[in-house]
Design goal:
The structure holds 2 protein chains of 2 kinds. Chain A has helices at 15-27, 33-53, 81-85, 92-100; strands at residues 4-9, 58-64, 68-75, 103-106, 111-118, 130-131. By secondary structure, chain A is of the alpha+beta class. In chain A, strands 1-2-3-5-4-6 form a 6-stranded mixed beta sheet. By secondary structure, chain B is of the alpha/beta class. Chain B contains 4 helices and 4 strands, in the order H-E-E-H-E-H-E-H. Classes of the chains: A alpha+beta, B alpha/beta. Chain A binds chain B through residues 12-14, 16-17, 20, 37-38, 40-41, 44-45, 48, 51-52, 92-93, 95-96, 99-100, and chain B through 18, 20, 33, 52, 54-56, 85, 87-89, 91-92, 115-116, 119-120, 123-124.
Chain lengths: 144, 135
């Protein structure tokens, strides 16, 4: 089984809660409870960052397959790329995402953060962010 | 003892600050995502928190704690075992309360919270920082 969905969120105080509840409703039957909890935490951190630091509507995309849950959070902000490149991605929320995810990163030139959390729970070490997703041919359009 | 009426009042003030409306509103305190009950116990005051602690609700806890800290309570036990979800925004409220406590008699203690909360504390490397009550 696999699940793939995308939702658009109004960037207000309730956005992270709506995002979490949507994730729970859509993938609770697909992944173990501990993985669901990690995905909800990662989503909450990224949507909260988008509400506080981003601009415009927020898009959340989630895709599961047999191996991983992939998440993306996108807003119309100026982009986190510079901070990531300079090693300044020290926000608590991004640090948490880096620890939850096996891989994560930021598409160049955008505020478009992605992460992958393996369903078998094999993540758990801090991972450094990547710029873009170099090994993934079918990645979403890169506006940068 | 403030109980749920308190939560509702705090929420109304936060609603004003953030310009959001409280659904259902008057006389029905159960529609918030966070319930905070402040009760006297033998050792001081116990602040019992239930619900989700995130960007929308952390200011409620912050306000309740600051109000409790203004009382002469000798200990303030923050019972977060009923918090079903917490993220780094919620965690910041706990860390700030601890920081204030260290400057003001070290009165605050926390329960250890749910497995989800404990996972966040471990990921954020604050499980040795926050002043947990002995299990």
């Amino acid at each position: 089984m696999s699940v793939s969905f995308s939702i658009h969120l109004v960037p207000d105080l309730t956005a992270s809660r709506i995002a979490r509840e949507t994730v729970r409703r859509r993938i609770a039957g697909e992944v173990p409870p501990a993985i669901l909890a990690d995905v909800m935490l990662a989503v909450s951190e990224l949507v909260t960052n988008a509400v506080i630091h981003g601009s415009g509507p927020i898009e959340l995309r989630i895709e599961t397959d047999d191996r991983v849950v992939k998440g993306e959070v996108i807003d119309a902000g100026g982009g986190l790329e510079r901070q990531v490149r300079a090693g300044e991605a020290t926000g608590k929320g991004l640090k948490i995402v880096g620890q939850l995810a096996e891989r994560w990163g930021v598409f160049q030139g955008t505020t478009h953060v992605w992460f992958e959390i393996p369903i078998d729970g094999s993540s758990g070490r801090p991972s450094a962010p990547a710029l873009g997703r170099p090994d993934d041919g079918d990645r979403p359009g890169n506006p940068g | 003892m403030y109980d749920l009426t308190w939560t509702s009042d705090v929420f109304r003030r936060q609603s004003d600050i953030f310009g959001i409306t409280q659904p259902g509103s008057q006389g029905s305190p159960m529609n918030e995502q966070l319930n905070i009950s402040t009760v006297q116990d033998d050792n001081g005051v116990r602040v019992v928190v239930e619900g989700e602690l995130d960007l929308s609700t952390a200011p409620l806890l912050d306000a309740a704690l600051i109000a409790t800290e203004a009382t002469p309570a000798t200990t303030i036990t923050l019972d977060i075992d009923g918090v079903s979800f917490i993220d780094s925004t919620g965690l910041r409220t706990l860390l700030e309360a601890h920081a204030r406590s260290q400057q003001d008699g070290n009165r605050i203690r926390l329960t250890r919270g749910s497995p989800q909360a404990q996972r966040l504390f471990a990921l954020a490397a604050v499980d040795d920082v926050l002043p947990f009550v002995d299990p």
